[in-house]
Each structure stands twice: as structure tokens, then as C-alpha cells.
Design goal:
Blueprint lengths: L1 E4 L4 H11 L7 E5 L6 H5 L3 E4 L5 H7 L5 E4 L7 H16 L4 E7 L9 H16 L3 E6 L3 H14 L1 E4 L10 H13 L6 E2 L11 H12 L4 E4 L2 H10 L4 H15 L9 H6 L6 H10 L1
Parallel strand pairs: 1-2, 1-4, 2-3, 4-5, 5-6, 6-8, 7-9
Helix pairs in contact: 1-7, 3-4, 4-5, 6-8, 8-12, 9-10
Organism: Umezawaea endophytica
Protein name: SDR family oxidoreductase
């Protein structure tokens, strides 16, 4: 049985749909914090069990009978996130899973300016030390994150952000397909993957131009200082830790941490990955 954690989230839902197109429903299970949110999956024959990263016993129950487990990274940060991931790895080992697949990120590393990348790097070390066969999917930065930034720009006509750098904004749908391949095609992806990215890296200036062209509404990209960005965030009631994490993102962008364009995802998909323009255009049609 293939188990998917976080199956009611944006990426997890897409992975489950991909699995249901590839294997019988009775070979798919999900581990979710709130099982009521997965009732529709249960009705389709998917095994639904409650499992929380902070509760190792619940994970072992949710993973029972697993041949492979997809661990979609925790929404927590720092030591809490790494502990959650270790709990999931340990639970997968306890039930005898033959492979753990983990959703890492293209810039994972101990020296990244963006704090979540340190968590991913620590989790990859935990996977290596576990001895269990694993696949760490070095996902490109989600295009949906850029669309969230652009939403504010479209509403105001202005996109005031710190200096950035090119980012390989990548579609959830394409990364979900890569996860399905890792879970169903033994030998295709093993260990830490190359960056799984779209075919182009774009700055926020590029994104603002695309938004303007697609919507017909002017979006002006302006560069502000890190200090001004922090003042604006705090003035809007954002927690300081969240603002500082955002500053780390822009520092990482400036350092080129997310600028790599790699052909691996295209080779896996057998087609060109979706462009940011395509993802953004689709988001505006909803």
C-alpha cells in the first residue's frame, strides 16, 4: 500500500489523484490530521486514517501495511519541523515500508538564507542516516507562492518588494506527477534528486510584466529596502518571525539559490513543464 501524508493539502490532493489513476484505490492510503476532510477519498475506496506528525503512535497506525510512504513536509518550522519528519521516517521504518519519499526543496542546504531550507537539509540527513531506501524530491519553488504575491499587486497596482533574483517557479501539478512516479516506478528516482524545476527562471519584475499582460491591469514592480519591507509587514500585523522568514526568502533569491533550471522534471514528465504564465493565466480564470 502507498501512504500519502498531508493528502488534503494542495500538493497531497494532486498526488492522490495521480495515484488513483495509476493503481487501484485499495492500494492507496492517506494519513491526515482530520479524517473528516478526507471522506470523499474514503468513498472512492482509499484507506483513510488519522495521523499527526506530532503523534508517533498515530503515524504507525496510519502507515500500517505501507510499502511506500510519501512524507509531505510539515507546515512547522525549525526543530519542530525536523522532529515531525523524523517521527514520520521512524514510523515508516517501524511498519516495514520499503521506501520513504520526501518533499524537499531545490535549495535545501545548511547554509541557505531561507530558514525552511535548513529544515529540509536536516531531514535529508535523517533519511540518509535511517538506512531506509528514500527519495528526496528537490522541488522547484511553487508557482502558487508567486501568485500570492501578485494577488496583492493586482489589487493595488503596485508590487513593492525587496530586491530579488530569478526563481524557477514550478507548478504543483508537475511536482505532484514527479511524486507519483517516485511512488509507483521503482528505480526512476532514488536518493536526493536533481532540482525538479520548470524550464525558466523569472524575477518579480518578469512576473509583474506577465500579470500586466494577462490581466490588462498595470502592476508596477518597485524595489524597497529590507527595512521598509519589515516595517510594512509589522504594520499590517504580521508576526516578526514571519516577516524575517520573508526577508530570508528574498536574500536567498538574491544569492541565486532558486535560479537553477534543470531538465530532470521535463525528462520525468515526458513534456515541457508548465510555464508560470500558464499557471498564472489559469489562476485568473477561476
Amino acid at each position: 500500500m502507498i501512504i500519502v501524508t498531508g493528502a488534503t493539502g494542495q500538493l497531497g490532493r494532486l498526488v492522490v489523484e495521480g495515484l488513483l489513476a495509476a493503481v487501484p484505490a485499495d492500494q492507496v492510503g492517506v494519513s491526515v490530521r482530520d479524517s473528516t476532510k478526507a471522506e470523499a477519498l474514503a468513498e472512492r475506496g482509499v484507506r483513510v486514517r488519522q495521523g499527526g506528525f506530532a503523534d508517533p503512535a498515530s503515524l504507525r497506525h496510519a502507515f500500517e501495511g505501507a510499502s511506500r510512504v510519501l512524507v509531505i513536509s510539515s507546515n512547522s518550522a525549525g526543530d519542530s519541523a525536523v522532529r515531525h519528519h523524523r517521527n514520520a521516517i521512524d514510523a515508516a521504518m517501524a511498519v516495514g515500508a520499503g521506501r520513504v519519499v520526501y518533499t524537499s526543496q531545490m535549495a535545501a542546504g545548511p547554509d541557505s538564507a531561507f530558514a525552511p531550507m535548513l529544515d529540509h537539509a536536516a531531514t535529508e540527513i535523517a533519511l540518509q542516516e535511517s538506512g531506509v531506501p528514500f527519495t528526496s524530491l528537490r522541488n522547484g519553488f511553487y508557482a502558487a507562492s508567486a501568485i500570492q504575491f501578485l494577488g496583492r499587486g493586482l489589487a493595488s497596482g503596485s508590487l513593492p518588494l525587496p530586491a530579488d533574483g530569478p526563481v524557477s517557479w514550478t507548478a504543483h501539478e508537475d511536482l505532484a506527477r514527479a511524486a507519483v512516479i517516485a511512488l509507483t516506478e521503482e528505480g526512476r528516482l532514488d536518493g536526493i534528486t536533481p532540482p525538479l524545476t520548470s524550464s525558466q527562471a523569472l524575477t518579480f519584475h518578469d512576473l509583474a510584466a506577465i500579470a500586466t499582460e494577462v490581466t490588462g491591469r498595470d502592476v508596477s514592480r518597485t524595489v524597497i529596502s529590507d527595512d521598509e519591507f519589515k516595517r510594512n509587514g509589522l504594520a499590517h500585523g504580521l508576526p516578526e518571525a514571519q516577516v524575517d522568514m520573508g526577508l530570508g526568502l528574498f536574500a536567498a533569491c538574491r544569492a541565486g539559490e532558486f535560479s537553477v533550471v534543470d531538465p530532470t522534471l521535463e525528462e520525468l514528465l515526458g513534456r515541457r513543464p508548465r510555464t508560470f504564465r500558464e499557471v498564472f493565466t489559469e489562476s485568473q480564470a477561476v
